[in-house]
Write a structure and sequence with these properties.
heterodimer; A: alpha/beta; 10-stranded mixed sheet; globular; B: alpha+beta; 3-stranded antiparallel sheet; two-stranded antiparallel sheet
């Protein structure tokens, strides 16, 4: 978000406060087009793999786009699964942009051949995020599967060669790849891409590997300092607002946007508060219901509840509450922590003690699982990732790095409200 | 915020690649070229921005939207921020820019 005009006349209040009460329409939303995926990433936030037979049809998708156009949703973050494996993927992209709904889509690159890259380079209204979770083949493929590093690199080469400037290289930050953060920047620079770093959530299959993959406390500090040092050169989907409690606020909307400014439409049309919260507790309804998405966004009980002002709960007495606002709802939920307490990765250390107190309680499991049933891809290389600790190791997917409120990507209301 | 200058006496318009959505507090703007989001903080600045293309100068757009002379510098700063993020661009005065 650019620093918008300073209030020339008495301001109606902080923008964050206004956003907290929700908007008439999302700024953007995440739309997972399919649960089908050619990969089996160990941390897939949507537990993707197999296509769901109830997937929205082409016509139903177009009807959703019509609704988004009417609501003036600026753009959709399309993900999956691997969205490009839907046979009607390009048709839907064209339909959306023709109807004034911009498209950003996340892909592992599997279908980004030269022709696709040329097509993308020609449009102002389509942006691409290539997912890569290691700056080396070893680190990446241990998480995303054998061959996925080469696939992503080939896709980025094709985009660069087609003249597409400023596509996104999207990385989920993990214990294993935080030491490679400068190397990621070099890769992005090499391809004329912009680096986008997002937070690992214990969502979907991510819950199974979170203990081994989430950054260590010292790494969180390292990441925070890197983000502060690189300012607006790097995008974050505003996903690291929990790190703001280290000191100064990071650029972006330091607020959980779930149900307020963003939400998720999943492949079968279910509407969730955020992409990291695929669980019945965060399910507002289905776009196939009477009134469709518009009614759900404006009238669902769940969203009304999420738009109530935060009370802060157990965090209220913490001096950093105004910075982090208690962190990520989904991260708390899937680690078994109460919604009104600290984030499991609270940088003030309250998360660890909170986790210790709930250790014996089973954390909620995702309600939906489309993981492949076939044998898992073997993780190789030096990164020891115990795949599927809590369940049979059968995975795949594309992490959709469309952060909880991916919305005001660059820059922030910091200081402007 | 760095000091920015903005020429109130030139003709401006909203970039054609900008989508503007009214909100209770003002409006949200999204630029499809830069893929940046911005916002207008109140109804008056929204009225100014909306009418830029209809006036020979930004000053005229401000005054016709009810901005007082004394408030012009503040509005110039607001418009400067929009210009620096390419949300609004200069146009040839007699081109409506619509």
């Amino acid at each position: 978000m650019t620093l918008a005009p300073e209030a020339p006349t008495p301001s109606p209040g902080k923008l964050t406060d206004l956003f907290q009460l929700g908007l008439d329409a999302p700024i953007c939303l995440t739309w997972e087009l399919t649960y089908a995926c050619n990969l089996s990433c160990v941390h897939c936030l949507s537990s993707s793999g197999r296509r769901d037979p109830r997937e929205l049809t082409t016509d139903e998708c177009k009807a959703v786009i019509d609704t988004l156009e009417r609501m003036q949703v600026f753009y959709v973050n399309i993900g999956g699964g691997e969205p490009t494996v839907r046979p009607d993927f390009w048709e839907l992209v064209d339909y959306a942009t023709a109807h004034h709904v911009g498209v950003k889509f996340s892909t592992n690159g599997v279908r980004l051949d030269e022709a696709a890259a040329a097509r993308l380079a020609a449009s102002d209204y389509v942006d691409v995020q290539i997912s890569l979770d290691g700056a080396t083949r070893e680190v990446n493929d241990a998480v995303r599967g054998a061959g996925s590093f080469d696939t992503a690199m080939r896709a980025m080469r094709n985009l660069r060669d087609a003249g597409f400037r400023g596509f996104k290289l999207s990385v989920v930050m993990t214990r294993q790849n935080i030491p490679q953060i400068d190397a990621f920047k070099e890769i992005a620079d090499e391809f004329g891409a912009q680096l986008r770093l997002t937070r690992l959530r214990p969502s979907g299959r991510g819950a199974d590997v979170w203990d081994e993959l989430h950054p260590l406390p010292a790494q969180q500090r390292e990441l925070y300092e890197w983000l502060v040092g690189h300012g607006d050169q790097v995008l974050t989907g505003d996903s690291f607002f929990h790190l703001s409690a280290f000191g100064s606020a990071l650029p972006g909307l330091n607020l959980c946007g779930a149900g307020r400014v963003v939400c998720l439409i999943d492949p079968v049309g279910d509407v969730y508060a955020c992409p990291f919260a695929i669980h019945e507790n965060f399910l507002a309804g289905n776009v196939r219901s009477a009134g469709g998405f518009e009614t759900l966004w404006r009238s669902s009980e769940l969203f009304a509840d999420l738009r109530k002002p935060d009370t802060g709960g157990a965090c209220r007495s913490c001096g950093f509450y105004d910075s982090c606002r208690g962190g990520c709802m989904a991260a708390k939920f899937f680690t078994g922590l109460p919604m009104d307490g600290p984030d499991p990765e609270c940088v003030q250390g309250y998360g660890e003690s909170a986790l210790a107190s709930v250790a014996s309680v089973a954390a909620p499991r995702p309600s939906v699982d489309h993981s492949h049933r076939t044998a898992p891809r073997q993780a190789g290389g030096p990164v020891a990732v115990a795949i599927g600790r809590r369940r049979p190791p059968a995975h795949d997917c594309d992490e959709s790095p469309l952060a909880g409120f991916d919305t005001p990507e660059p820059g922030a209301p910091a200081g402007c409200c | 915020m760095p000091e920015v200058t903005f020429d109130l006496d030139r003709a401006w318009r909203v970039d054609p690649r900008v989508s503007m959505r009214p909100e209770p507090f003002g409006a949200l703007l999204y630029h499809f070229g830069t893929r940046r989001l911005s916002f207008l903080k109140n109804q008056t600045v929204l009225a100014v921005v909306r009418s830029l293309a209809d006036h020979p100068s930004a000053r005229a757009a401000c005054l016709s939207s009810g901005v007082a002379e004394a408030e012009l510098p503040a509005y110039a700063r607001a418009l400067a921020a929009l210009a620096s993020s390419k949300m609004i661009t200069e146009r040839i005065p007699h081109d409506s820019g619509a």
